Amino acid sequence: MAIPFGENAKESSAWWGIKKFEQPDYCNQRLSSIANHLQGRDGVATTTQTVDEADAPAGVKSLALLGIAILLGSYVVNAMDRQLFPLILPEVRREYGFDLPEAGLMSTVFTIGMALAGLPTGYLMSRFARKSVTQIGTLIFSAATVVTVLASGFADMLAYRALTGVGEAMQLTALLAILSSYFSRYRAAGVGAVNFTFGVGAIFGPLLGAAVLSAYGNWRAPMVVFGILGFVLMALVAILVRRSVSEVKLVDGEDVAVIGGARTLRNRNTVLLVILSCIAGLAAYGFLGMYPTYLREQLNFTPADTGNVMSIFGLGALASIGGGFLGDRFPMRPVLVVSLLAQALVGWLLFNGPASFMAQAIFAFAWGVVAAGTIYVNMAAYHVKAVSGELAGRASGIFVTSFYAAASVAGYTIGWLAREFSWTLAGSVQLSLICIVGAVLALALKPERMARHAASPQFGGLGRA
User: Fold this and answer.
1) Domain-by-domain residue ranges, the chain?
2) Tens of pLDDT along 81-120?
């Protein structure tokens, strides 16, 4: 076939343009694109994936994957920041004179900020670009981390820690929406990728924090270092993440068809998942908030050994992607019931099993695999799958709110139980007994009412940005 040049090229282009507009599918795609463009004038930048974009050049795909990597890297810093404060809590407690319940509350109060910011962030993402929400969240939690070193007492430090959670919730909610949309068919695996980076941060956060603490002999030094890291990642997101990656919106079509899912947030599965998320939050942050204090003050571990154990927990959390694929591959009820019962067993062993470094390291690793690598990942994905596509952002917000609302008091409750009774009873109740209750409740879920794809497997966003 001859390639037209000059006037012939113009005539050929015009002819093909007319023929394309005679095709209903093409017209529907163009009208959808125009509608999305008009919606974007209100501040929401959307990328509607069409057949025309499926043949993106390799360079564009590489830039898209680089953007995903940078976004996940920003969450590594988020995870590092969360692991830091429990590690330095004994120093903070000695300087300010906090008792165990107060120290526990200080360790996990940032999650109340996450809980309060979850639903509003879902609304913000319906009005503004997800990339912008991610950057603002990173700015807030990094600045609050640095400002914490200036606290004069319990009240203002509590406020700074809560503000840290607001920023972390904004970043997390936006990332969950971005990855759930970009990898639309394998949503649990997409969420698993986010939590995989949490595992990376959980590995390096305690190690770096302990190293800086030992080098400077002051708990404020690692706080400043981690805050600066957050500012650096915020700048990288601004420069390297394209909105065609962060604002993906799928066009209804055969390759992305979704059926099922409730049309309202008031449905059986969502209500049960909210309760289960509260249970998961209490158990997870009972561990994250006060387990390092238990190691240092009850088992007499050094800061370095405590940091090593928590880093090994992070290694377990790296199972997140595999845990996400389990949730995509197997039915919801067996996945949650088995995982919650396994969590109950590991939680009991943490506070009742052998107290040696090796034993605690093994138990911490297993906790990372089950709690962070399986339960958290699939709980987040099931919230999204419980509703139809247009409610996905709000469902992510509900998960963040319910999980972190419970987590906000987890440190206080396990600290109170330890002070009034013992660490053994505290761990048995908050990290074991309530997980058994959760496993029973999970049996009432209705998998047949969840959203599911009706067509062949395909990564919805990969290579189409």
Assistant:
1) 56-453
2) 888 999 899 899 999 999 989 999 998 888 888 778 867 8
pLDDT > 90 in the chain, percent = 39
- 169 vs 366 pLDDT, higher one: 366
Mean pLDDT of 435-459: 78
Question: For 302-352, how does the pLDDT look when each residue is reduced to its tens digit (9 = 90+)?
Answer: 888 999 999 999 898 888 778 878 887 888 899 999 999 999 999 999 999
Euclidean distance between CA atoms 195 and 201, whole angstroms = 10
Among 163-167, 188-192, 424-428, the range scoring the smallest mean pLDDT is 188-192
240 against 294, higher pLDDT: 294
| pLDDT in the model for residue 459 | 38
Judge: domain 56-453, CATH 3.40.50.1820: no
Task: Let me know the angle formed at the C-alpha of 33 by 29 and 37, rounded to the nearest 5 degrees.
Answer: 170
Residue 360 corresponds to which tokens in the numbers above?
């605690």
Q: Diameter of the chain by CA atoms?
A: 89
Residues facing 48 on adjacent strands: 249
